[in-house]
Amino acid sequence: MSPKGRFVDMGGKRTESHFRRLDAIRAVEAARDAGISPTALEVVLDRDGGVTFRVLSAAAATDTTEGAKVWNAEIEKLKATPKGKGQL
Questions:
Q1: How many helices (H) and strands (E) are present in the chain, helices listed first?
Q2: Residue range 44-58: average pLDDT?
Q3: Cα–Cα dist 14/16, whole Å
Q4: Distance between CA 55 and CA 42 in Å, rounded?
Q5: How far apart are CA 10 and CA 16, in angstroms?
Q6: I need a surface site. Which of 4, 18, 22, 29 has the fewest CB within 10 A?
Q7: CA angle, 76 as apex, 73 and 80 as ends, to 5°?
């Protein structure tokens, strides 16, 4: 500790986010061990505070579903529409 008490020695303490980071790294390593080439990592937060990590391969990370195609087409239409008076 410093003479004026400004710095606190954290020692071996780890924060909650540090454990979640290690959990994410473990999920990616487990996917690699299972033969999956990780392309994306999806983090799902539950209402009760639980965290689920989904490791996606190249095929799963692309938007190939029909719902995603329709959604992306609608977004592109909205982006192409010129903004008029009173619109954000």
A1: 3, 2
A2: 84
A3: 7
A4: 6
A5: 14
A6: 4
A7: 140
Place of tokens 């606190």: 8
The whole-model pTM stands at 0.50
Rounded CA-CA distance 70/57 in Å is 22
Helix, strand, coil percentages for the chain (3-state, nearest 5)? 40, 15, 45
Helices (H), 1-88: 16-33, 58-61, 66-80
- Using alpha carbons, select from 48, 56, 58, 63 the residue that is nearest to residue 27: 56
Contacts of 9 (CB under 8 A, 6+ apart): 1
Q: How confident is the model at residue 83 (pLDDT cuts 50, 70, 90)?
A: confident
Cβ distance 70 to 76 under 8 Å? no
